[in-house]
Design brief:
The chain is mostly helical. The protein has 16 helices and no strands. The two termini are 23 Å apart.
Amino acid sequence: MARAISSSSLAGNPVYPVMLAIGGCHLLNDTLQAVVPAIFPILEADMGLSFTQLGMIAFALNIVASVLQPVVGFISDKKPMPFALPLGMTSSFIGIAGLAFAPEYWLIVISVVFLGLGSAIFHPEGSRVSFMAAGSKRGLSQSIYQVGGNSGQALAPLIGAFILVPLGQQGAALFLLVAAFGIFVLSKISLWYKDTLEKEKLSKVKKVIRSSLPEMTKKQVGVALILLLVIIFARSFYVTNMTSFYIFHLIESYGLTIQQGQLYIFLFLGVGAVGTFFGGPLADKIGRKNVIVLSLAVPIPLAVILPYVPLFAVLMLLALIGFFIMLSFSVTVVYAQELVPSKIGTMAGLTVGLAFGMGAIGGVVIGMLMDYIGVYQTMIIVSFLPIIGLVGFALPSDRKIKAV
């Protein structure tokens, strides 16, 4: 099948300032998204929302991002949209403003829809910029990009503990400054993006991506994509539980306060961001499939025993699970892009969008389970999710690409 795409830096040198800038903007974007799970304990306490209602808020945020990301990616593959990046951040600005001042449940839902729309626009276009700036360092570039996002998500517990607990719901308004700064930086990146596209058009040179995967039929590519999406399902469902609902287990089973519990969640996400960074370079050395399998196989026994261990052991297990389960976050994006290299934006939108979609479904299902069977029993059920990721053993093996 065809493996040629147009991109001005695929065979050239990495553009590190752009790689770092888009990674930084990913941090800003996902910090805004992180305000939503961070505010859950506040909404549960102050507005009396049920776990199911909290799950529906998570669903509204993530389903919009999930459904629209592949659409945005598909459209931008046909017609790149450099200035969509600051427009997406503007949508997030509106969403944060609504979230901070919404007096009722339904207005909160509408606000997070704007946040989801901003995320849907940002992620496929941001991933494209990362790809364009990568040169021969695709694994490193995608890791820088994704670690920015995961670092932003990791801030959710700190946002909750040190901003939203003291200031309440309206404390979210502080993040309007984050959104405004993001709009400014993304406007600058969009100019580079536009200039790069114009130079590529004038050169009329078609670059070719060198895939680490063997030549495959459309059927084989389809099967590999399905396996990859199953892996993303298992990882995203589990991570959603940890980021949005595990704090209620810490409060109920260990007697922690909201602020204390948020610090445990920060450990999980913070170490997970470290894992995300190392995943890309490690995949460049030992192969993408190997990292994907490692990422889901190692956490299995750790996740299964997590609900039963004493509090002192929770810290160690959260750190280990967070590191390994997020090791493959950027790798799955690159693997999908190499499966269908003529659709870079679509594959980024599909893989990251599915992660949001699974988070959306996971939020509703976990919230309902917690309402009906209790927090502790739900944690036990969710602990078995990483086992599903073992389907990664059936993925096609890849080989290392030598730098050009």
